[in-house]
Amino acid sequence: MQLGDTYSMLGQVEKSIGCYEEGLKIQIQALGETDARVGETCRYLAEAHVQAMQFDKAEELCKKTLEIHHAHREPASLEEAADRRLMALVCEAEGDYEAALEHLVLATMAMIANGQENEVAAFDVRIGNHVFMTGKLLESKSYCENAPRIFAKPAPGITAEEIAGGLTEISAIYESVDEPQEALKLLQRAMKLLEDKPGLQSTIAGIEARMGVMFYILGRYEEARKSFESAVAKLRDSGERKSAFFGVVLNQMGLACVQLFKIDEAGELFEEARAILEQECGPCHQDTLGVYSNLAATYDAMGRVEDAIGILEYVLKLKEEKLGIANPDFKMRRVGWLSS
User: Fold this and answer.
1) Domain boundary assignment for the chain
2) DSSP characters for 75-131?
3) Fewer Cβ close by (within 10 Å): the C or N end of the chain?
C-alpha cells in the first residue's frame, strides 16, 4: 500500500493501481471481504481509478466501500460522507447528475450530523450546480442560499480565493434564475475578499466584468461602465489585451457607453473589440457578429451612414457564404437589414 501511495504521488497512476490491487487481494485473503480495512483500501483503489479516468471500475469499488462501511459504522458516518463524495465525483464524470446530486446531499447530511457544518458550504455550491444541471433552477437556488452564510464563518484552512470562487459560482446560479441583485451582492463580497491580494488581477477583472453585466441588467449604466473600465485596465496591465475575453468586455463597456449617450467612446470600444475578436474568434463567431451589429448602429448614430452600411454589407456577405442564399434564415435576415 505504501508503494502504491509513492507511485501515486509521483503521478504513476497505473503502477499505483497495480500495487493497491495486490494489497487488496492480500487483505481480503487475510481479513475477509467485509473487514473495515478492506473498505479503506477499496476507496484508495477507487480514487486511483478516478485519476486514471476508469470510472466504471471506480464506481464498482465505491459501491463495495459503502457496503463495507454500512456494515461496520453507524449510519451517516464521516466515512460514508467521504465515500459518497467520491461516488458523486464518479457519477458527475459519467454524466449522471441526478445520482451525483443524491450522493452529495447524503454526504452533506452526514457531515452535519457529525458537527462539521463549517465544511458544508462547498457542498451546497456543488449541490446547487448539480440541481442546476438537472434543470431545476429554483431548487438549485435554494441549495445555494445556505452557502454564503457558511462562508461567512469559514473553516480553518479555507483561503480567501476559495471563498471568492464559491461566491462567484453561487452568483451565476442567481443570475440564471433572474435575480441579478442577489448575484451582484455575492460578486461584491467576492471582490472585497480579493481586492488586497497580489497576483490576482485577472481573477478580479473577471469578477468586475460580471459585476458590470449585473449593473447593466439593473439599469445602473454608469456603475456598469465604471466596473467594465476597471476590468479593462486590469486586463491591459496583466497582458490579456489580445484575448477574446478582453474583446467581449470591451464590447460590453461599449454598450454601457451607448446607454449613457457616450457615442464616440462607444465607437472606439467597439472598433477595438472588433479587431481583437476578428483575430481571436474569426469574423463568423457570434461575439464578433454582435460587435459588428453594435458598431454599425453606433456609426449610424454618429452620422457615419456609409460606414454603417459597409459593415452591414460585409456581415450580409459573411452570412451568404456561411448559410447560402437559399437558407430561409438568410432570406429573413437580408430583408430585415435592407429594410432597416
Assistant:
1) 202-340
2) TT-HHHHHHHHHHHHHHHHTT-HHHHHHHHHHHHHHHHHTT-GGG-HHHHHHHHHHH
3) C
pLDDT beyond 60 at 245: yes
CA atoms of 214 and 55, how far apart (whole Å): 39
Dist. CA 148–CA 167, nearest whole Å: 7
Tell me how far apart the alpha carbons of residues 224 and 339 are, in angstroms, rounded to a whole number: 33
What is the C-alpha separation between 327 and 315, in angstroms, rounded? 15
Q: Considering the domain delimited by 202-340, tell me its CATH architecture.
A: Alpha Horseshoe (1.25)
For 281-333, the pLDDT digits (tens) are 999 888 999 999 999 999 999 999 999 999 999 998 887 777 554 444 544 44
| Unique residue bearing C-alpha cell 449610424 | 300
The more confidently predicted of residues 210 and 144 is 210
Using only C-alpha atoms, what is the Rg of the chain?
26
